[in-house]
Amino acid sequence: MADTVAAPHIQQLGADMAPVHNPYTGEAIASVRTVDATATGTVLQRARCGRRIAAALSRATRTSVLERTARLVERRAESFAQLIVSEAGKTITQARKEVARAVNTLTLSAAEVRRNAGEVVPFDAYEGSEQRQGWFTREPLGIIAAITPFNDPLNLVAHKLGPAIAGGNAVILKPSAHTPLSALRLVDTLIEAGLPEEIVTVVNGGADLGAAIVSAPDVRMVSLTGGFATGEAISRTAGLKKLAMDLGGNAPVIVMDDADLDPAVESCVSGAFWAAGQNCIGTQRILIAREVYESFRDAFVARTKGLRVGDPLSEHTDVGPMITAAAGRATQRKVEAAVAEGAVLLCGNELNGSLYTPTVLEDVPPTCSIRQEEAFAPVVVLQPFQSFEDAIEQANAIDYSLHAGIFTSRLDRALSAARLLEAGGVMINDSSDYRFDAMPFGGFKYGSMGREGVRFAFEEMTQPKVVCVNHLDTAW
């Protein structure tokens, strides 16, 4: 096992070692250095040094570093994709798409440095301020703690590092213990592209380390992509600082009776089972008009049964492993509990190691956890509805929401759904899992804090500073 994987520019903190396992084979593919809460002082000292260096970097330097990093990642795309497969279990096709998105995220971040510098404030447009003129700039917050999950181990790290660096901040990055290797390689590539190494401090460790970092007064913002339990713990301990959290969802997709069923089925299958369902905007609840329910259900189940589950390195695999065998077992137990309460299993729910077959359920009681909570697994619940109003009510019945979708050929219904659905994004004639890295991304209702998407994260990670000049009679 290697100490760090293809990251020669990073000096990792800590003496203890933790293995990183391939989700498909179970093999330990690398080890990384770890620290606990006792190292927090060292981490913060390095981050304070990084904050001073980052604040002094010119916009030209920040832009060129991010642009060069994007080009290096692009040139090494296959190597990055292979690394994602080995530590996260995504299929090679899905991993290549993630790398392409990360390149786009970094490129957008570079553009934001030039684009979003501030604005002129028209002081002289207001009575009493005729002799004043000025502007505001966007200034860094300082030190940002970024905590990232396993399911997009490269692009979700880029979504935090790119805007943070663009804004002139230092970052303490705590990647998922399951998938630290892509994060390390991306930070190493940033340093190779010219970023001073003190600006990003990568730490691997447990919850005690995370709590110590997020509660430190020097940390001015915590950006988390993760689960609700982690988000709640952070909100209790963070103190007076900015919080941005993407805490998951339970995405509904509505299929109206006037929808074109073939593309709806294809899109929903992809949206449900991409990345083995380990996707916060993955399609989990499909609400189908009673008139077309059986036709959609039969086509959806047939297409699901045709998915190939297996080795994620194979070009022919559609669904790779879940992140651990334990995650697969937990999912299987939830499905079996739903069946025991009256749900009908249409296909799937077979487990072989960490490989869990795509699973479709119907007649799931509303009290079941698999219907009420985020599954984060390749599991879909089919629900019929009687009317458009009924569909909206069912879609909005969950306490938290990221994305939703609707398939319809009627513009009035599409626009009504866009207005009525309680979600951070409404995808029309698309499944819930569509995301473009430039758009605002975040949740509605419980747990909604802030927005990602490069421009919006950049603005979250910076603060306006106003400069106002009063033209006195004194000559300048």
TrEMBL record:
Domain (Aldehyde dehydrogenase) ranges: 18-467
InterPro entries for the chain: Ald_DH/histidinol_DH (IPR016161), Ald_DH_C (IPR016163), Ald_DH_N (IPR016162), Aldehyde_DH_dom (IPR015590), ALDH-related_metabolic_enz (IPR051020)
Domain of life, source organism: Bacteria
SUPFAM superfamilies from the UniProt entry: ALDH-like
Keywords noted in UniProt: Oxidoreductase
Pfam families: Aldedh
Record family assignment: Belongs to the aldehyde dehydrogenase family.
Name by which UniProt lists this protein: Aldehyde dehydrogenase family protein
Organism the protein comes from: Streptomyces ochraceiscleroticus
Organism classification: Bacteria, Bacillati, Actinomycetota, Actinomycetes, Kitasatosporales
